[in-house]
Write a structure and sequence with these properties.
Elements (H helix, E strand, L loop, with lengths): L14 E2 L6 E4 L11 E6 L5 E5 L2 E5 L4 E4 L12 E9 L3 E8 L2 E8 L2 E8 L13 E6 L5 E5 L2 E6 L2 E5 L12 E7 L2 E6 L8 E9 L2 E9 L9 E6 L5 E5 L2 E5 L9 E5 L10 E6 L5 E5 L2 E5 L5 E4 L10 E7 L4 E6 L2 E5 L17 E4 L2 E2 L2 E8 L3 E8 L5 E10 L2 E8 L8 E9 L2 E9 L1
Parallel strand pairs: 1-26, 31-37
Antiparallel strand pairs: 2-29, 3-4, 4-5, 5-6, 7-8, 8-9, 9-10, 11-12, 12-13, 13-14, 15-16, 16-17, 17-18, 19-20, 20-21, 21-22, 23-24, 24-25, 25-26, 27-28, 28-29, 30-32, 32-35, 33-34, 33-36, 36-37
């Protein structure tokens, strides 16, 4: 039996019951939700909610439901949907990449719903999919798409399909992939696990300008508590969270993998359930975990609050979680429908700084390089990053602890992560946010 190690003081994990929030739900019985087994939820830039169910895709704008199936005008590859990922396409605008049990659909959409859809399956011309069973979908910051199947990893880069397995370079175990997450140039791959050489819980590859490199592994039981990794999530500080068949582990080392594990949370120290299928972070820096026995919310002090059917959750098996930051609502995709909690968190207030932060960039219209200057008024945590106009992080220029004083950082727009357009430079110092618009040619 694997020795269970806890890297965080158990005293911090105080389990409490419902603390005033109300949980409401939608099912096929009280709404137009097409199916009650809901594997995916996504809140788009318009505030619309998208649900991937066992009977099709649903969009809900808080008043009206729109349903998409394999027989509607804009069809999906299959009615049984496992995952949804977002992409801002420079040609088509907002797109959803939808992983199903029988292929992939990319759907362009606007505020009213899907405007066009195309599906890809194994056997289609120029499509390299070893399997049509798509469990997980993610995109990196160069808009490369990754698809986790029951037989390995498929990649769609530009118009080129690639496949990675034991015989590729980099090599990835050709076993079932359960989850995917992107962090700048790294892709973390949650595996179903196995024994012997296939006992890795998580594989990692890197997408460099000159091609894919890696792969390194987070091996069970040394780096993750279970070889079955249902969810991978990278939080706002760059910490990596892995939801496994035996709780959650967090890695805080920003570079490297072996020495950064500092926390393991399981039912023994407060988690609602040991199998963790969903992880997300709200703007108040609370962590949300969807498990096989309900939802757990962990605040910044380490206090855990659990929500189950006793508190109004429609079903205790929670497959996915997404955050509506504008309304402070958290949405839960479950095995029995969709639940949501309003006023679920409070945004972290800014810490008052002695001096105003002055952020400048020259030139503001950039063709190659630009020089970023800012005064850091206090020693502490700083993050400087570039976002697109819908709030998607494209590149992190600096993340870590920084001394006070004037700072200079160079932005290279020829790194392959940018295309021409408008971007937002975002500086965070002690929860104080400063932004500046830039144009990249």
């Amino acid at each position: 039996m694997v020795k269970r190690l806890f890297y965080y003081f158990l005293a911090l994990f105080i389990v409490t019951n419902l603390n005033g929030q109300t949980i409401n739900s939608y099912t096929s019985a009280n709404s137009d939700l097409p199916g009650d087994i809901v594997k995916a939820v996504f809140v788009d830039e318009h505030g619309n909610k998208w649900f991937g169910t066992n009977q099709g895709l649903a969009m809900f704008n808080n008043n009206t439901w729109v349903i998409y199936t394999d027989v509607t005008e804009h069809t999906v590859a299959d009615n049984s949907i496992n995952d949804i990922a977002y992409q801002l396409s420079h040609n088509s605008g907002s797109e959803l990449w939808i992983g199903t049990v029988n292929g992939i659909t990319v759907a362009a959409y606007d505020v009213d719903g899907i405007t066009a859809a195309t599906s890809y399956r194994s056997g289609d011309e120029d499509v390299t999919l070893v399997s049509n069973m798509i469990n997980a979908v993610t995109l990196d910051f160069a808009d490369v798409r990754y698809f986790g199947t029951d037989s390995g990893l498929a990649v769609f880069a530009g118009q080129t399909w690639l496949y990675f397995d034991d015989n590729s370079e980099p090599d990835i175990p050709d076993i079932e992939i359960l989850s995917l997450a992107a962090e700048e140039d790294s892709i973390y791959i949650g595996l179903k696990g196995g024994s012997g050489i296939n006992a890795e819980g998580v594989a990692r590859i890197q997408n460099k300008v000159d091609g894919f490199t890696g792969a390194s592994a987070y091996v069970f039981p040394y780096n993750v508590p279970s070889a079955e990794v249902f969810e991978v999530f990278v939080d706002s500080k760059g910490y990596r969270w892995f939801g496994t068949g035996y709780g959650i582990t967090r890695h805080t080392l920003l570079k490297g993998k072996d020495d950064g594990k500092d926390m393991l949370i399981a039912s023994e120290n407060g988690l609602a359930g040991d199998s963790v299928y969903a992880i997300n972070e709200d703007p108040g820096k609370n962590m949300w975990f969807g498990t096989n026995h309900g939802v757990s919310k962990m605040n910044t002090s380490g206090q855990i609050t659990n929500y189950t059917t006793s508190e109004g959750l429609i079903n205790n098996i929670v497959n996915d979680i997404d955050i509506d930051a504008a309304t402070r609502t958290v949405w839960f995709a479950t095995e029995g429908g969709v639940s949501y909690m309003e006023d679920a968190f409070v945004n972290i207030p800014e810490q008052k700084l002695e001096n105003e932060i002055i952020l400048s960039i020259l030139p503001s219209v950039i063709s190659e390089y630009a020089e970023i200057k800012f005064n850091n008024p206090v020693k502490g945590y700083v993050e400087l990053a570039v976002y697109n106009t819908i709030g998607q992080k494209i590149n992190t220029l600096f993340r870590g602890y920084m001394n006070r004083g004037e700072q200079v950082i160079t932005l290279n727009v020829n790194s392959g992560k940018y295309s021409g357009g408008i971007y937002i430079l975002r500086l965070e110092v002690q929860n104080n946010i400063t932004t500046k618009k830039i144009i990249i040619l």
